[in-house]
Model the fold of this input.
Amino acid sequence: MPSYKLTYFDVRGLAEPSRLLFHLAGVPFEDNRIVFGDGTWERMKNSTPFGQMPVLNVDGFEIPQSMAIARFLAKKFGFAGKTPEEQAWVDAIVDQFKDFFGQFRQLIIAQRGGKSADEIEKITSEVVNPARETYFKALNKILEKNKSGFLVGDGITFADLVIAENLLSLKNFGFFDESKEPKLAALKKKVFNQPSLKEYLASRKESQI
Done:
């Protein structure tokens, strides 16, 4: 079996779907978590492929970019979709998440950058809320058509993991009310109730994102 080492900050963030894939598949890996502010990231940044994390090391072979890593692992472990058509839809849904996250990230940057309340409210009302409405509408449409409760096909894929994790982050930020989005709430519950994930989810460190 290959030796896997996943390096990312000590938060859920963009590496969490990949961590979940390891636990879902029952595949051991080194969960290398970098602490903010202790200088470790600054020392190692230039040695990473793109100067970013996460990075997955597989027997010395490095793979950068969060969704490239998740897709690689999903294909390895059988969670990328069962047919080429399913795989295309899994990728499309993950791309939809990336489109939304690019918009939502503006709010995170503004909050962490100490922007004024007025500026944060402007970003929320003019960028994040419209993007969230489009995003949720697309996801609900998919779930309405696919009666399995998952996003694609009749089994869990890495798209379900990506979306469930994002819904948790949105809930933490006050942008996801489960009572108003029952289909999305049911998806999140279905994903997090997977037997192979329960032990990890019960013990993992809480983080807003």
